[in-house]
Design a protein that fits this description.
Chain lengths: 351, 351
């Protein structure tokens, strides 16, 4: 583990300069180019894109809006940013290829902080094989990170948001909602030694895992008609998935992957567990619409999902989302919890 | 020309919300996907990369560091950002494919401002055929733009920074230095009606043109051994080009493309014209190392350069850059003007 950023213990960005910083990042975290490729250090990076179709996503993270160094360690800022982007590739069923990082920071920022952010990204990147191949550094008042990820898709892919049909089964990976519980916990101050649900909630918020293995396997199974990651919360992202085809959905609370530990965490934090499960963002689970005729094929693929998959409802011809509560009652429309939005519109805020 | 951002005259980002803004940008400025491609609106964009090798560059622009809305119109911020990125593709000899834009803005930002930034990008993008295919929007205190551009390279390309040899001829496109004169002029307040050198200087700074046609033609001629864009200034970027191979260069002032108008502008602004030509950044001209044996082939290709190309010196085996002044004297080392650097290191600043 490189702790001292190559001997720059205590140094600030203004001490090493822009070229010193880039050299450090390239040596310590730069991806190794394959024949015909170019990594950090030229006017642009060059990467091979198997299949000739690049899948691209970009995400801007601003200190104060997306994270606070008050309760995030720099490694976690980096790891989380990489996972969020990898999740966008996962949601297309794409194979991860490379990432670029643009960073703005104050000249008084310790080199070790920037190094730790990149180390966090590299650690989150490693299992998927995605490599850092380029970027940009500049001055700025607030720490700002812009990640761009590149993936590749073969024939029959990508899996898009559009494509669901009435009757499709809705599956979700893992246990959405934990990230929001983690955020609620952290807002009260970061526990020094967390265990039990506190540990699980913190981990979900600070070090989420992108479901790229699940996304790839789902896409290869050809059983998934539409897919999205639930970074804005299940309801908001389900609505995004359905709106392309003018469809709706019914969800059944009793089938939701909500554990006893999740309920205990919700109770302790004063959050309705249904709100936490359906309405909260920043989870990087995948929501998939599966053709009933291909369910067996999907289930075979899902056996390889590290995070598993749970059926939570079905697509309907009637637009709108309705949830059947465990007590048999129904909620819909404005009664449903809402997801996270930037620039919330007046209409939205008035709800 | 779309002036009212689709009827949002006077509206703020908080009025239209994130999804309203994305819809507007997609409808007004979004690229049209070709078969097998996906544009704005899914988890990620999908683009065809002819040749299977993607050329990638990303650039982060922060209000206050890179531009000021005090003397930049929003269209110019967008156009300049796009040109800067296109210039990175040009410097590799790549064919432009698509761009992504991540934007952070305060919720009180007028929709028309954001629309104008994207319109500026679209206008600068149009001649090259590069298309807006994705992005991200979020809240932030300062207006922040992160552009990522994607290009493609065929066999025999890209042209990199490394590759020069002693004896190679150094050519530069256009007339570097004007951008910095423009900046100096604008710092004294934006003239309402500029003509003559004022107009040329302002235009160079506010609406620079990327040399993608020149970069493509140079790469296709197979006569250019190494290439870089001079966004940090000729000296700084020439040093970047030479350092890969441990080489040096001699430049001859009498050959520099410095016009009478350029000298008049420098004199009026109190800037040494040699400093302006060699040391100033933010020009998006290309610097090329041409093998003497392929000079004729290069000159044939250069006939198609809209900005032309001028020989300014040659690569030497001895490291370091030396400039022969018009009076026959030589300058080198610390006597040379320096380019623009972020996080200037203490060593650098001490010069």
């Amino acid at each position: 583990m490189v702790r001292n950023a190559g001997g720059h213990r205590g140094a600030l960005l203004r001490d090493v300069g822009e070229s010193g910083l880039i050299d450090l990042l390239r040596r310590t975290h730069g991806g190794i180019p394959r024949p015909g490729e170019l990594s950090i250090g030229d006017d642009a990076a060059v990467v091979r894109v198997p299949g000739g179709r690049a899948v691209l996503s970009t995400d801007l993270l601003v200190e104060g809006t997306h994270f606070s160094l008050g309760y995030f360690r720099p490694e976690e800022v980096g790891g989380r940013a990489l996972s969020a982007n990898l999740s966008d590739l996962a949601a297309m069923g794409a194979d991860p290829v490379c990432y670029l990082v643009a960073l703005a920071a104050h000249p008084d920022t310790p080199v070790a902080t920037v190094d730790a952010i990149f180390r966090g990204m590299a650690t989150a990147a490693r299992p998927s094989g995605i490599r850092l191949m380029g970027g940009d550094t500049c001055r700025g008042e607030r720490l700002t990170l812009c990640l761009t990820v590149v993936g590749a898709v073969g024939r029959g892919r990508p899996v898009c948001r559009a494509g669901a049909r009435p009757g499709d089964l809705l599956y979700v990976t893992g246990s959405p909602g934990w990230s929001n519980l983690g955020l609620a916990l952290l807002r009260g101050g970061r526990p020094t030694r967390a265990s039990g649900w506190r540990r699980e909630a913190m981990r979900a918020h600070l070090a989420p895992t992108a479901r790229w293995r699940e996304g790839q396997a789902a896409a290869r199974s050809c059983a998934v008609a539409a897919m999205i990651d639930v970074s804005d919360g299940i309801l908001a992202d389900l609505a995004h998935l359905l709106e392309r085809d003018g469809l709706g959905a019914v969800l059944a609370e009793e089938s939701f992957p909500v554990s006893r530990s999740f309920r205990a965490a919700s109770a302790a934090l004063g959050i309705d567990p249904l709100d936490a499960f359906l309405g909260s963002g920043e989870d990087y689970e995948l929501l998939m619409a599966v053709r009933p005729s291909r369910r067996a094929r999907f289930l075979r693929a899902a056996r390889s999902f590290p995070a598993g998959a749970t059926p939570i409802g079905a697509v309907t011809k009637t637009p709108g989302i309705r949830v059947r509560r465990a007590d048999g009652s129904w909620i819909e429309g404005a009664e449903l919890p809402s997801g996270f939005v930037h620039f919330p519109s007046r209409k939205h805020r008035a709800r």
